[in-house]
Amino acid sequence: QNLPPTSGTLTVLPARGNVLDTIFQLSAEQWVDPKVPEEDYPLSFSFGYLDFSGFPKLLSSGSLLSSISTLLPAGSDSVGCQAAESLCRRLQLTVMVSDAAYASSEPTLPTYVRIDNMDPFKMREIIERELGVAQTLEDILSGMDLMSKCATIADSMNDRSVNFEFYGIPLEQKTAWRDRMISHLDVTARKILVPL
Description:
By secondary structure, this protein is of the alpha+beta class. The chain contains 3 helices and 9 strands; from the N terminus they run E-E-E-E-E-E-E-E-E-H-H-H. Helix 1 packs parallel to helix 3 (171-192) and helix 2 runs antiparallel to helix 3. The N and C termini lie far apart (40 Å).
């Protein structure tokens, strides 16, 4: 029986940042593949996070790189935040480590990062900037990266702790942003899946 990789952790730096504004470094460290029945290298790494409903979302999939740099969406709980810190949220991060024979495992302990909501007066600017990145990912046909980017933007826009309308972003604007993301994904899928 092939045993999955073991003994590793998931670390994140910095330990605190802002939604769609801080670049975080997620690293899978000290993972080894047991010699039962044999070592099955190379290892691959799929990084992600749990959204508001506990559903896993991928930031990268099956990469040979044991770390990624990424922006993150809003966290889903405020455990460990002070009562006066209304913008404070925690986000649970994930990594699935697989060996070459497809046995996989995750760290035994959860990894959290503190994600404060974006500056309410910069929300429009930040989301527009990230939609520009999504356009670039569409242009270069980077399907996995585009899906990850759109999921991160959408999860940030769906944060119920933020009153977007109060800060001048009506539902119609959020709908237009959603439609742009759907268009990026649709165009990319059609180009990637074009019959030869």
